[in-house]
Amino acid sequence: MAILLHLETATTNCSVSISKDDKIVVLKENNAASYSHSEQLHVFIKEALKEASLSFSDLDAVAISKGPGSYTGLRIGVSAAKGLCFSLDVPLISVPTLQSMAHQVGLKPNEVVIPVLDARRMEVYSCVYDSEYKEVRETRAEIVNEESFTEYVSDNKVYVVGSGAEKCRGVLQHPNFIFDEAIVPSAKDMVSIAFKKYESKRFEDVAYFEPYYLKDFVLQQKKKKN
Questions:
Q1: Does the structural domain 105-180 have CATH classification 3.30.420?
Q2: Measuring CA to CA, how many Å separate 183 from each of 9, 80, 100?
């Protein structure tokens, strides 16, 4: 039996889960707009292990949500995951953030899910998955307009989910679009993806792994007063 620790810090949701094989046994998370990751992540890890009656030495691997998402959130999560992997000598597994979001939607044939995370202004991070959760279009940072995703909507019901769904709702008018901005990345949805990677030994190089930022970090500076 494989015991995996899963960390999700790509957005405002600080989320930790523990699984045995592909079954989740503990979930600890808090979706706070203030980004509580630096204060809560390690607390959640310890609490999750305690609730599962496990210790750090019981872990067989650590899975991290790789992004895209918040620069600071991703750095905190990846730093914690790499530190655990180095100290425990266990493998690191990465899970695309948008892929785990897609798994929150139960799809039927002729249905598509497009997870969208809010970026600056009218921009979103997005990826497109078919009814079997296979990626049919790569992850992009793109500006949403009335032509966005129209190639998928004529023959499919298209779920647009995540923090970027609200800005999409304002410009995407086709009746086959269904919007759900309540879906957030969560460690509970990493479990099945991470376990498949564990079984096939698709591990990351702990020393060189970096989050998938998608865009360069831009430092926001306060304007000087005249």
A1: yes
A2: 14, 24, 11
